[in-house]
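seq as requested:
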Amino acid sequence: MKAVIGIRREDKNLWERRAPLTPDQVEFLIRAHGLEACVQPSEQRIFSDDAYRRAGAKLEEDISHCQTVLAIKEIPLHFYQERKTYLFFSHTIKGQAHNMPILKRMMAKRCQLIDYERIVDDQGSRLVLFGRHAGLAGMIETLVALGQRLAAEGIETPFTELRQPYQYADLKEAKAHLREIGKGIAAEGLPEAIVPCVIGILGYGNVAQGVQEILGCLPVEEVEPEGLSRLPRSSRVLYTVVFREEDTVEPIDPPSRFSLPDYFRNPERYRAGFSRHLPYLTVVVNAVYWEKRFPNLVRREDVATLYRQHKTPALRVIGDITCDVDGAVEITRKATTPGEPCFTYDVATDRIVDGIRALPGPVVMAVDNLPCEFSAESSRDFGLALLPFLPAIAMADFSGSFEAISLPEPIRKATVLHDGKLTPNFRYLEQYL
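struct tokens:
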């Protein structure tokens, strides 16, 4: 009997058009590994139903017979079947309260849960991810927000010509447009009112690499954090600065020195130290991994102080690509969608106002599913990374002990539940259940 993989239809919101596998990748699994594939029909998926049918997949509304089911976003509670295996971003591994019912239901149904976010190599680096595409789309959205915020203040810039990522045919077209805008900046310069234009990037991982890839289409010059106070007022270049952990936090005990291993082990010994950089930044892009045990990096009181001390501070936009509500960027009060990607934080009232306004406070871009704005490219890259693991997952025998299952090590590490029980690496989640 052939192993059958099911692909669930994404329905969390109208913007989610991604798929865990493209039609070409499904065809490869069928032909090279003898698997069967069933795909739930979808009118909004970036790849058509016919494309999957031509690839050899069956289009079926009911995929409950599939032993292994792939999805992107969280799967609703009614969907789970006894002892089946599910792969998706469960958003449970930080103990997120709103998704604990998912874990409870899967435990009751004795399911397997493999979370993409925990598929890592020996060094702990993620192997199956959308991070780069979040950075690509997020940086474009942030530049769009910058152009609109400045226009609301009466300052015209080339950034008003930019479109949101999903409004381009593909990433190639978006980059070509950015390069044209970049040529204009290099030739004619930016308005004096926003010079020097400085973009600060929190983080240096996959998301940040996508951010830098977009900024590379523009005339940029990278500087170090300690050089921010001495930047020349050049209008024909955008300055970029990458902030690492030692630039954003400091030991609570002043005689102590910053230690990255100690910070990861004992973050309670550290406090935010990013406020000293805020006066020099036009844009802050948040691309760091964050958990509740870490300090807030862009704090509400620091933003408020900045706007009280300066009538028109440099800071106009925060692109919160990581988008943890009340997280690294404390004024990220909610997640947004591509339909209305931004809100403005009003320091005078400590409230947020939907849309982009010329208020005393920065605009925040907080779209939480940015890769869906480049759905085709992000799905292809994601599927290519996932593909090598799928034959072993589909053909694995999960009926025995967890230790006896033949699985690639990265998949074993990512298995949150086996037969409805938390595996050793994830028993810490018991406290949240």
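The chain has a mean pLDDT of 96.
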